[in-house]
Each structure stands twice: as structure tokens, then as C-alpha cells.
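A common beginner's mistake is to predict each chain separately and then try to dock the pieces by hand. The better habit, illustrated here, is to supply every component at once so that their relative placement is modeled jointly.
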Amino acid sequence: MTKKERYIRFIDYFSLHQPNAQTELNYNNPFELLVAVILSAQCTDKRVNLVTPNLFNKFPTPSSLAQADLADVFDCIKSISYPNNKAKHLIGMAQILVTEFKEIIPSDVSLLQKMPGVGRKTANVIASIIYEAPTMAVDTHVFRVSKRLGLSNGKTPLAVENDLTKNIPNDKIRIAHHWLILHGRYICTARNPQCGKCPIQGMCIFFGNRKGDIKLF
DNA sequence: ATCCCGAGGG
DNA sequence: CCCTCTGGAT
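With all components supplied together, the output reads:
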């Protein structure tokens, strides 16, 4: 099966069976999504969703978060990974949002990355979800699953991003991001991937080549 | 011991 | 390129 055929199989299957895939982060507005995505670094969405209700209640706006005490923000998020770094990032992000962006989250990826805690992946998520831009955010799931399915053999997240963006039609890029995330989270997991439950194992490079071990890639 | 929707700094 | 940040689940 050629690479192009794998892309077609991948897109056709999920277009039919997961036409409404979306993020599992809870949020009610763009600002809350930005906060949630920053918190999601190296942390499961479920754990992020555990702390955001209280966080959003205490700091509902960019200005309230910009003026927050570090210790108070830390206390809200101390049960997730890197709470100290993330607390600093959240406050710094809110301050730039207030002082430079007039409390309006930019749509431009490079402008988004001017905010602390917002790297390429987070910027792509915001551009895609909030502004409906055809950007592919490559996180650990997208990176791993893309390689296993033979959609890309890029050695860096950026290389995989460019590969996916080039080969997926523009109108499918946004939802393809969520297909890859959800497939990686529930089926094509890093450890003990559930290949027996995988509906597209027929197009998978990884399946059939693994020797009882998951360390093929 | 390894992984989770990474980012910043050296 | 590397390293550090760093809590909870498996």
C-alpha cells in the first residue's frame, strides 16, 4: 500500500465513523481553551479538566489572571504536571494578552507564540479550533500515530506537521488532528497498543512488524 | 519505569 | 542538539 493510499484509507474511515471528533478539554470560551491547552502539556486531558472549573471560577478573565498571585494559581493547578512553570506561564500569558493584544487572542501562529507557555503545538491548536485555520498541531499522539500508520516518517514534530499538512486536504486537517489524538489515546496507545481493536490495522505499518514489543519506533 | 494534546533555556 | 520542569496513572 502506498503512502497516498494510506492517507485515503485513513481519511475515508474516520470521515465515515468519526465525523464529529473534537477536543476532550472542557472550556466555554477561547480564553478558557487557551488556558486549558497550556495546562495540557505532558498531562492527560482528564486531569486538566479536574482543575479547570475551580481555576476558571477564580480567574475568569485575562485581567483577573494577569493580576493573580503566583501562589494562588499554583494552588489551583498543583495536582497536574509542572504546576510551577505552568502557573508562571498562565499569568505571563494573561499579562501579554492584556497589555499587547487588548484581551483578544491572536489568530496568527507566530503572534500566539509570543505568549509564555504557548509553543508551536499550542498555537496550532488555538488557530485551528478558535479560528478554523487548517493547522495541524503535532503532539505526542499525533507524532506516534502518524508514524505507525505510515502517514509520515518525519523525525521531528515539525517534519510530521509539514507532511500531514501537505497530504491531508485543507478541509480535513482540523478534524484529522482530533482523529489522530483520539486514536492515539484510546487505541494506538504508546504502551500496549490495542491493535486487536484497531479498525484500520490493515493499513498500519506498525501492526505485523512488531515482535511482541512496542519499541519499533 | 514509562507515559500524558510541551515549552523554555542552555 | 540537549536538559529541566514535575504530578499522577499504569
